[in-house]
């Protein structure tokens, strides 16, 4: 394990790996913590039907992105990650080293350079599995939660919407099917990349705190499903305007044409993109780089798209994603 | 997940489950953190060769015990646990609920009643796997590490030594072999119980801090192997006196006779008992309830038993455990 940990590059902890636990600073006397797991054949495939292989680097990156996104969604800055890797006996060493490199690269490139890799654990298993727990600090601010959305607040998102879902659909397309004969366009490749290595906007969680976001979460299960969680936690209607969802449609167009799917399906229901979904008291509070996509209304908790229940619009086509 | 989390009983967090992360207090502005995983067929068997079945309760308890022990070994008091459970589709719901009950019971009965279950994650997998990350606080004290042992310090242990290893040997004995015909004695059953549900001395880590332990760790891979880690981290000889290791031999006797093994093998090399191993400046510093088992000497890092390298004594019989 010592050798593998040495492959991780990260900010130093107060006490790093090498003892039974590491020690991390929590300057304001509190910290946030979350945990997430990626399992082979559930959250990724070592080899996809399309023939693409998931590298250790991809899995390390995705684990970091997914976990850091949860910390970001609270409005916090990541301080530490501990990683447990379970691997079949025949996993190549370079694949395992790739996990460390990918995790470290995500920390640096996504803007979490102050997060320490504080420890880890490698064990044997029948299938590849990686669990990371990540902590963060809020510099004295209150955490953003799901229950603070109020009528007349503006709904806004920041990050990629739909591309990771389109990427999943492309990866799942069997290489032998006629649909995959043409090579992927650069937009399609970008969608695939965002499925394999998501890019949550990690600098934006703390920005949302400064702008007093009234509720926030990350979109890991799709916009409609996650907006439903804010609706229920806050006791409000989340009314989304589909004409405001065009900002990320361009990159989905080629995949939509190839697979004969309305790209808006991915925008509304595609998961794993880890965009931020938040509500703000007014349009003026929405930070630059964010997109206002609707408004909070009083009423029985539900999500509306263009004033209709999404199911009436056929947008649940991808609800199994 | 909400329903499963409701089965856990624990102290409240500053902000509990239900958002993307929970928030935990770190009153002195620092926290310790560690992570550990239990995987089916690696760390436990759903059904052992002896016919014993591991319950969800056992797995939950063992995960809590193993992880809390790491926090204890730093001298800290556990503040929070986040748990990720990966389960095959056919896992019975009562087995999963048992995990929550066992985890919660271990917190309470082992003396970690101030630890919050701060969140979790349940996903699908091909085999059962549970990862917990646990945090702790030190009330301003310095963490105990492995590198502080100095010549003339006293080596001491607290907790069960060898019973979990003997229990493993009993569980691994095929029901059909002649050796298992007699039912287990109460001592043998106790060994099996300590393998399935270890009992780390969770109140003793903080006591060791008060008594200024110069180094500390928990014994998860066996006394010899873990003492070797302190020897290397501190650059010292760990000289153990086998005549001081008799305090826990009684409970091993029946298993030793049945399996025709010198019980001292389990005491020296049995893992998963999660006793504490520490060094103290003098015999007077060793807290009551602890056992002095040897002394630290200057020299090339190694472990000696009765002034010999353990391999020369045949004690590595169980080194694969």
UniProtKB/TrEMBL annotation, chains A, B:
UniProt xrefs under SUPFAM superfamilies: PurM C-terminal domain-like, PurM N-terminal domain-like
Binding residues for Mg(2+) 5: 221
Domain PurM-like N-terminal: 18-136
GO BP annotations, alphabetical order: thiamine biosynthetic process; thiamine diphosphate biosynthetic process
Residues that hold Mg(2+) 2 according to the record: 36, 70
Keywords: ATP-binding, Kinase, Magnesium, Metal-binding, Nucleotide-binding, Thiamine biosynthesis, Transferase
Keyword Lipid metabolism (UniProt): no
Other facts noted in the record for this chain: Reaction mechanism of ThiL seems to utilize a direct, inline transfer of the gamma-phosphate of ATP to TMP rather than a phosphorylated enzyme intermediate.
Name this protein carries in UniProt: Thiamine-monophosphate kinase
Originating organism: Neomicrococcus aestuarii
Gene name tied to this protein: thiL
């Amino acid at each position: 394990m010592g050798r593998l940990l040495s492959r991780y590059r990260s900010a130093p902890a107060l006490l790093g790996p090498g003892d039974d636990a590491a020690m991390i600073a929590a300057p304001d006397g509190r910290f946030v913590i979350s945990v997430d797991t990626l399992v082979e054949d559930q959250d990724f495939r070592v080899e996809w039907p399309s023939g693409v292989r998931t590298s250790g680097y991809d899995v390390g990156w995705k684990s970091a992105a997914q976990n850091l996104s949860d910390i970001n969604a609270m409005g916090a800055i990541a301080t530490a990650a501990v990683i447990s890797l379970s691997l079949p006996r025949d996993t190549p060493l370079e694949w395992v080293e790739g996990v460390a490199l990918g995790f470290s690269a995500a920390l640096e490139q996504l803007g979490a350079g102050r997060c320490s890799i504080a420890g880890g654990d490698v064990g044997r298993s029948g299938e590849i599995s990686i669990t990371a727990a990540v902590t963060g600090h809020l510099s004295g601010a209150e955490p953003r939660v799901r229950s603070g959305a109020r009528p007349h607040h503006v709904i806004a998102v920041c990050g990629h919407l739909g591309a990771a879902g389109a990427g999943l659909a492309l990866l799942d397309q069997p290489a032998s099917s006629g649909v995959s004969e043409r090579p992927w366009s650069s937009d399609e490749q970008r969608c695939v990349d965002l499925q394999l290595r998501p890019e949550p906007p990690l600098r934006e969680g703390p920005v949302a705190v400064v702008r007093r976001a009234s509720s926030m979460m990350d979109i890991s299960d799709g916009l409609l499903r996650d907006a439903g969680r804010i609706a229920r936690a806050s006791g409000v209607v989340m009314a989304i305007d589909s004409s405001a969802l065009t900002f990320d449609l361009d990159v989905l167009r080629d995949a939509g044409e190839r697979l004969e799917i309305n790209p808006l399906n991915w925008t509304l229901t595609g998961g794993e993109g880890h965009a931020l979904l938040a509500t703000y008291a007014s349009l003026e509070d929405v930070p630059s780089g964010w997109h206002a996509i609707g408004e909070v209304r009083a009423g029985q908790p539900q999500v509306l798209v263009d004033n209709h229940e999404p199911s009436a619009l056929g947008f649940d086509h991808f609800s199994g994603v």
